[in-house]
Amino acid sequence: MKTLIRKTKKIRKKHWRDGLMQSTRYVSVLGIMVMLVMSTTCYGQAHAQKHRAEIIGADGNPVILPEGRSLVQETGRSVEPVDSNALVALYYAAHGENWNNNSGWLTDMVEFWHGIDRITNVGTDENPEWRVQRLRFDDQLLTVPGELPPELADMDELDRIRLRHSMLIGGIPPEYKDLNVRRLEIPGHFFSGEAPWEAFAEMPRLERLYIYNNYHVGEIPPIVKDITNLTE
Length: 232
What we know:
The chain has helices at 2-48, 71-75, 81-93, 197-202; strands at residues 54-56, 116-121, 130-138, 160-164, 169-170, 183-185, 190-193, 208-210, 215-216. The chain is α/β, with parallel strands linked by helices. The chain has a 6-stranded mixed sheet with strand order 1-2-3-4-6-8, with no helix packed on it. Strands 5-7-9 form a 3-stranded parallel sheet, with no helix packed on it. Strand 2 and strand 3 (130-138) form a beta hairpin.
């Protein structure tokens, strides 16, 4: 009888331990599921917000526009055609329909196009002239090879071009000698041939030049030393 009681206690104790472990596993799984749901919700909320470029006024200070309101609606003027036309050329030359993120492009006002990082009023408050000042794409053009269009050289108010680690092929257009950028960052593509060093040397404000991890051939010529503002 005593032996039977001891066996019964052992069985009950084992069942209690098994039940506790199973309950713990259920709680752990439930916790993971809750965290996944919360993470997905937060991710969706973060990406549900519409992209808008930073807007800088004629006085050099940020301009805060009401949610969803465009420059046209608030100031009566949009981005100048010289910039929007050059950006459309970029979209088609780089196969924008296949970009990882092409939200807003060709369907919304320019300030809502993904990758347009800053727009500045180079005119006055009374007569605004909105120009694109910065482009920023990282790991963007990955699905179909594309090229850089020469039309970007028409965007004479560009201060920075950042197109990193994407699937751009061909070469860097020699027309880019007319760019007024301080920073030109185009590493990690499939550019081939000789880099247009003469064009880089003619950029009057160039301070930083990143073209590493491409397929350029030849050596860096002495003319690069003539780029007086170059620091990197």
